[in-house]
Write a structure and sequence with these properties.
By secondary structure, the chain is of the alpha/beta class. The chain is built from 15 helices and 8 strands. Pfam families: HTH_18.
């Protein structure tokens, strides 16, 4: 499990995290990443966590320093301003046990081939800017991804969720909770949640049938459509629909639809007071046992445990 791998960093004393700021100092992406980690460092003290910040130039020239986790961050608006020493920057990042990018940093790493074969939370607003070398990364529409030792986040407001998740995985909820309180964050979005404009940004003009099919799914959560019905309404054959989903989303339509409904259910469990039975019905599950089994298979805990976790927080 990716989280189990990342959690080994809790054994480091101190854990050294480096954030490379290749964008504006007050951007949403950068602020969302650095503020939670700095608050965690204050709570834990320098003997447990040390958060360094470097510019790209200073990072590549500081060859003697060792970090356990390195993240290259830049806002999407800086996508066209790739650092001049970028190749050296990528090699220095890869020297760390865990490393990755946030926002435009994800684009740059993908174009350098550093994310080949890796599940990558790609900022979909930058999809048109990516060159062909980035195609070997496995782009997902999720807010962030942790695939082995490589971490990616789409940036923007999701940077806060990403940073808080790192704190929780490495140091636990007893550290994450006070950071959330200091930052006035009620709920941390999970990495499986999707960027709101992801599909439209990537496929709106290139694959309108795929976008239409997903839109139909999103509009029919409580009373799910069959794959054949979706294909018919989108104006394609079932086989064509399955090919589109497999090629661009790495999933079958039925599986994608199920995960969409389960993610909605999880959101309702966290954000509303509807009963577990009501949530299941609202997301198209007529059987409580089917809802619980499918939920547990995707998230690793039952709907009841998810609700209890929210109440505990």
């Amino acid at each position: 499990m990716p989280q189990a791998e990342l959690s080994v960093l809790a054994q480091e004393r101190p854990l050294r995290i480096l954030l490379i700021n290749a964008g504006e100092p007050d951007s949403l992406t950068w602020s969302g990443l650095v503020q939670p980690l700095r608050q965690a460092a204050k709570i834990l003290g320098p003997e447990r966590l040390h958060v360094d910040v470097r510019s790209p130039d200073k990072f590549t020239s500081d060859a003697q320093r060792h970090w356990h986790l390195v993240l290259l961050a830049a806002d999407e608006a800086q996508a066209g301003l790739k650092p001049a020493n970028f190749r050296a920057l990528v090699e220095r990042c890869r020297a760390a046990p865990f490393w990755g990018g946030v926002g435009a940093g994800v684009l740059w790493l993908a174009e350098a081939g550093a994310l080949n074969g890796v599940r990558t939370a790609f900022p979909w607003s930058l999809y048109a800017d990516a060159d062909s070398r980035a195609d070997q990364a496995i782009f997902t529409p999720h807010l962030y991804e942790i695939d082995g030792n490589r971490l990616t986040c789409c940036g923007g407001a999701a940077s806060v969720d990403f940073a808080l998740t790192l704190i929780d995985i490495i140091f636990g909820s007893n550290v994450q909770a006070p950071v959330k309180e200091l930052l006035c964050v009620d709920r941390v979005r999970g990495r499986e949640e999707r960027q709101r404009v992801a599909l439209q940004a990537r496929f709106g003009t290139l694959q309108p049938k795929l976008t239409e099919a997903v839109t139909l799914m999103e509009a029919n959560i409580e009373e799910p459509l069959s794959t054949d019905e979706i294909a018919q309404l989108a104006g394609v054959s079932r086989r064509q629909l399955e090919r589109l989903f497999k090629q661009y989303l790495g999933s079958l339509p039925s599986r994608y639809y199920l995960e969409l409904r389960l993610n909605r259910a999880r959101q309702l469990l966290l954000d509303t007071n509807n009963s577990i039975v009501q949530v299941g019905l609202m997301c198209g599950f007529s059987s409580g046992s089917h809802f619980s089994t499918a939920f547990g298979a995707l998230f690793g805990n039952t709907p009841r445990e998810e609700r209890q976790r929210r109440l505990a927080e």
